[in-house]
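Handout, section B. The chain below has 155 residues.
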Amino acid sequence: MTNAPTSDAELAAQPAGYWTGMAYEAVISFIRARQAELGFTQPQFWLLRNLSENDISPDGHGMTIPELQQAMNSYLRPEDDLGAEAEVLLGRGWLTLDAEGRLWITESGEEARAGLGQHTPAIRDHIHRGIDDADYVTTLKVLQQMIRNTAGSPV
């Protein structure tokens, strides 16, 4: 049995939901596996990023787990347990917890966030290997249009 190449007409008829779901799972699995090899998890990196005034946090103020969950609700996965991930970071001295239950990034946590972020370009380069920027931009524009067509406005 041979696997004949799929024609453009056949590809055009395939369901976008299937392929976007497959791409999402493959990309997230790849990113999380690379990060695990480097000794951290994606949710741990997100915690540091969301608490850093040098990154996502608008003001560098501490946040509770529910506040962090709300801030990350568009990209957390169902299996992500921010409380457990925060405990690991507390144990590493990268976060502290105040009396009101707010997590704060420490100086060593800030250094770790910056260091962990240095791996992002290599991970991105691997994911984008063989894809030129013009094709990538076109793909994103197509996906954004599909979002507008089905849900209103793209993220």
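Note. The mean pLDDT is 93. Compare this with the example in section A.
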